[in-house]
Amino acid sequence: MEVLQQIRTRDYVQHLQEIFHVQKRIYTAAVLEPTTTSELIALWKQILVLWTNLQSFFSTAHLHLLNDDDIDYSSLVFGNTHPYCSICLLSTVGIDTVLPDSSTFNTAYLTFAGRLYHAPCANFYLNVIDGILPSLKRAS
Fold this sequence. Notes:
InterPro entries: SYNRG, SYNRG_C. It comes from Rotaria magnacalcarata. It holds the Pfam family SYNRG_C. This is Synergin gamma C-terminal domain-containing protein. The chain has four helices and two strands, in the order αααββα. A hairpin with a 2-residue loop joins β1 and β2. A two-stranded antiparallel sheet has the order 1-2. The protein has one domain (3-129). It has helices spanning 7-30, 38-60, 95-98, 119-129; strands at 109-112, 115-118. By secondary structure, the chain is mainly α.
C-alpha cells in the first residue's frame, strides 16, 4: 500500500486519467461523425469499462481522482467556424470551463503546421500512435 501513496504513483494515475480524457474528447466528437463505426463504439465501451474498474481500484487504494461523470465535453462541439483540435475535433477554446479543477489538467493548446492541437491530445498521439501529427477535419 505504501507504493500507492508515493508521488510517482499519484502522478502516474493522474496521467492515466489525462489519457482517459483524451479518449473521452475523441469519443464526444466522433459519435457525431458519420464515419464512426459500431466497432469503434464497442471499443470505447470497453475503454469505459476498463477505466471504471481502475477507478474502483484507485478508490480502494485511497487515490482520489476527479469524478469523470461530472465532465461533459459536448459544449466544446462547434461548427467549423471555431478553432478546434485536429485530433479530437473539439474546440481549443473553453476546455478550462468544462473541467472542475483545471489546475490538475493540461488545458494548453499548440499550433503545428497551421493546425491546432490540445497539448494532451498531441502528446498522446506523438508518444503512442505516430510521430507525425494528423490534420483531421470535421466531416460536418
